[in-house]
């Protein structure tokens, strides 16, 4: 019996991506194949001695697709039903099922699989093979399991037309749909690669997708990352030897040259049929499919990624739909992004990212995560990293820097209340831009980071949206919102929508643009600013000008930002990955306080983006108006987006407004908008007053519980001085890791 290893490449981590103390812990990465795919197929090097194992529900087309793949590879094709089970039993599979019954059939089927051995073949499993753990463990060690993921409705239609007599598990009182849904848990447990198969996709096309997916699985060299400030054309041999992968950029956060990491070959594209296959599935399932295509299994295997996603978006969110879409009025819809534990859209990334980070880092290295927040990020980071397993919390800690007087009282109370044994908040006597710039400078201060590594065995990383793992999960909810409108019958797939997002650091709106690039039919991304409207001016004129601008404190503090970090990723994209130009623009911004786009780049930008801004007065008026007419309370940031959407939409298609936070977080402003004359300064009293309105949505459960626990909680405050911040960082490292 042959036992052939399952290919899982280990990545070579360079000195640029991990402290030298960790290098000895890592193994060299196997040399990847370099031949083009046709050469692979003709020489059998795609398979070698491994098998391609096709798995999926009955009616998925495993047998037909397996024959086509086998023909293309010129290798043996084995159908478990016909070539193994019926040969072993000397009777048809349906006769065996009728003879022994459901449970005994699964056991007999598993025993037959345990005796089976093959190499260099294409194997089509039965639909029920994955339900026998020992049998699957045996066959999986000899190859790569490819899951043909076909929508349940399509499978039911196929089986009906095929007049299939035998479905294992089908019984009186148990519907076919129930059987198919029950089996999904087993398919998800065993697959290495998922191939989406729509209803009208020909078997030949599915076979090509299988071959492409196997090639991707075996060659992760294609999925590298570059800095927005690197020069890609004519890259040196030294640069090639320091290739960076998803796990590297999650750990590093910020590129050594001060740029931000982006996928070198861009994001994956989904076909219309693939997107349509996700219309009827849950948010968690959509997230799994999308992120599997964005994260190579050599970095995080599909089964582990599924486990992380289910942990992130399971019980931690108060709404079963996770990111529901609600009709507001006319052609306007709200994407509610506040059902996570800390009541803002930041939870979508920060319930997921800590687990990705913990999986990617070497087991014997300590990491301190640095975060700058204008309000919502802080509590979300603290909550997310405090939910890690105890062993991970011993080696991963987080410190959150926020403007001491630049967040709402409830936000501050929340950040103080979310502090745990590995998570702390530090107030800074300055604004958010100082906090964010200070963190970037600390990362690029090699003397300081080197000192921390040598003296304390601790490396620094980032959890702001400068980290690619923060941005990636946000793509999911923009795609999911569109699919929900299709599911609700508001639009048909392919019909365009506009998206309006309150924007400060440009991460959320960039994620929407990425969803568009991946195939979601978004027409325009509308950037909504408050009175700190540097982005609005830039989108309208192409001039990014900070000269003479001072940050204005507003009722929407999360977008009180003048330096938009993620804008750099977008400009890198529309400039055709010209890292030299991006470096020039942002060096000029840093040194001279302004830059101007070329006319051709401004033209590209204005094809994708439109922008507007909203005053505090108009923000409060919108909150009052919407509540008066609908009984729904918008938070201050959503109100900014609502005002801008009203002004800029042309009403020819639906518009999805990102509701980025729960109104409970901004109770004083909301009470003022609702024209309450006397407002108690105690945050808990403010929430109790709001709850008396019985408005939609109800008061946020997690926020209320956090404030009850906070009381007069303590936190550190420091001056706006780089040396003081670095001293705080060193002290916290000593406290937690030494």
Automatic annotation (TrEMBL):
Coiled-coil ranges per UniProt: none
InterPro entries linked to this entry: P-loop_NTPase, Ser/Thr_deHydtase_PyrdxlP-BS, Shikimate/glucono_kinase, Shikimate_kinase/TSH1, Thr_synth_N, Thr_synth_N_sf, Thr_synthase-like, TrpB-like_PALP_sf
GO MF, any single term: pyridoxal phosphate binding
Limits of the Threonine synthase N-terminal domain: 236-313
PROSITE patterns to which the protein is assigned, alphabetical: DEHYDRATASE_SER_THR (PS00165)
Recorded GO CC terms: cytoplasm
Highest taxon in the source lineage: Eukaryota
Database matches in CDD domains: SK, Thr-synth_2
Modified residues (N6-(pyridoxal phosphate)lysine): 346
Family from the record: Belongs to the threonine synthase family.
Annotated protein name in UniProt: THNS1 protein
Lineage, highest ranks first: Eukaryota, Metazoa, Chordata, Craniata, Vertebrata
Name of the gene this protein is made from: Thnsl1
């Amino acid at each position: 019996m042959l036992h052939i290893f399952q290919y899982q490449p280990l990545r070579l981590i360079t000195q640029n991506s991990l402290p030298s103390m960790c290098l000895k812990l890592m193994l060299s990465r196997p040399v990847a194949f370099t031949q083009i795919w046709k050469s692979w197929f003709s020489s059998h090097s795609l398979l070698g001695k491994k098998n391609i194992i096709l798995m999926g529900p009955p009616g998925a087309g495993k047998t037909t697709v397996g024959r086509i793949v086998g023909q293309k590879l010129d290798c043996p094709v084995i159908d478990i039903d016909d070539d193994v089970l019926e040969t072993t039993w000397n009777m048809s599979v349906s006769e065996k099922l009728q003879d022994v019954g459901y449970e005994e059939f699964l056991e007999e089927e598993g025993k037959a699989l345990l005796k089976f051995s093959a190499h260099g073949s294409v194997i089509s499993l039965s639909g029920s093979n994955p339900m026998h753990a020992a049998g699957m463990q045996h066959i999986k060690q000899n190859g790569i399991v490819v899951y043909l993921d076909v929508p349940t409705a399509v499978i039911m239609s196929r089986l009906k037309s095929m007049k299939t007599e035998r479905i294992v598990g089908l019984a009186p009182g148990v519907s076919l749909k129930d059987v198919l849904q029950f089996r999904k848990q087993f398919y998800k447990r065993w697959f290495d690669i998922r191939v989406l198969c729509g209803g009208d996709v020909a078997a030949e096309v599915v076979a090509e997708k299988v071959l492409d997916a196997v090639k991707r699985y075996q060659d992760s060299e294609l999925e590298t990352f570059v800095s927005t400030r690197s020069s890609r054309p004519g890259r040196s041999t030294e640069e090639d030897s320091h290739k960076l992968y998803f796990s590297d950029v999650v750990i590093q956060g910020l590129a050594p040259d001060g740029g931000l990491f982006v996928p070198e070959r861009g994001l994956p594209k989904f076909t219309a049929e693939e997107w349509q296959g996700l219309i009827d599935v849950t948010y968690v399932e959509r997230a799994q499919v999308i992120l599997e295509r964005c994260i190579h299994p050599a970095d995080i295997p599909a089964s582990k990624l599924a486990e992380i996603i289910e942990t992130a978006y399971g019980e931690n969110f108060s709404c079963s739909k996770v990111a529901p879409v609600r009709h507001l009025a006319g052609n306007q819809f709200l994407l509610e992004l506040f059902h996570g534990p800390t009541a803002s859209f930041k939870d979508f990334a920060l319930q997921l990212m800590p687990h990705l980070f913990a999986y990617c880092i070497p087991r014997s290295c300590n990491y301190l995560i640095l975060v700058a927040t204008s309000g919502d990020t802080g509590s979300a980071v603290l909550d997310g990293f405090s939910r890690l397993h105890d062993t991970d919390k011993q080696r991963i800690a987080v410190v959150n820097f926020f403007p001491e007087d630049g967040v709402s009282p409830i936000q501050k109370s929340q950040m103080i209340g979310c502090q745990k044994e590995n998570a702390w908040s530090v107030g800074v006597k300055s604004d958010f831009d100082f906090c964010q710039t200070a963190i970037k400078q600390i990362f690029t201060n090699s003397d300081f980071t080197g000192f921390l590594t040598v003296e304390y065995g601790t490396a620094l990383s980032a959890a702001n949206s400068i980290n690619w793992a923060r941005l990636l999960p946000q793509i999911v909810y923009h795609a999911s919102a569109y699919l929900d409108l299709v599911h609700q019958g508001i639009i048909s797939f392919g019909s365009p929508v506009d998206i309006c997002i309150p924007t400060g650091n440009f991460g959320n709106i960039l994620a929407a643009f990425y969803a568009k690039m991946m195939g979601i039919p978004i027409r325009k991304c509308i950037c909504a600013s408050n009175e700190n409207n540097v982005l609005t001016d830039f989108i309208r004129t192409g001039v990014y000008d900070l000269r003479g601008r001072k940050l204005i404190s507003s009722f929407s503090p999360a977008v009180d930002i003048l330096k938009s970090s993620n804008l750099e990723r977008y400009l890198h994209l529309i400039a055709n990955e010209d890292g030299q130009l991006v470096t020039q623009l942002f060096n000029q911004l840093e040194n001279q306080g302004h830059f101007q786009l070329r006319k051709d780049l401004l033209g590209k930008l204005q094809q994708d983006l439109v922008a507007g801004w909203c005053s505090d007065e108009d923000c409060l008026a919108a909150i009052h108006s919407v509540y008066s007419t609908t009984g729904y309370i918008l938070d201050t940031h959503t109100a900014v987006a609502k005002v801008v959407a009203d002004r800029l939409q042309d009403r020819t298609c639906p518009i999805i407004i990102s509701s980025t936070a729960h109104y409970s977080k901004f109770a004083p402003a909301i009470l003022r908008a609702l024209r309450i004359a006397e407002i108690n300064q105690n945050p808990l009293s403010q929430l109790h007053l709001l709850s008396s309105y019985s408005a939609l949505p109800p008061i946020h459960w997690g926020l209320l519980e956090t404030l009850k626990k906070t009381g007069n909680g303590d936190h550190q405050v420091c001056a706006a001085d780089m040396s003081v911040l670095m001293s705080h960082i060193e002290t916290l490292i000593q406290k937690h890791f030494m």
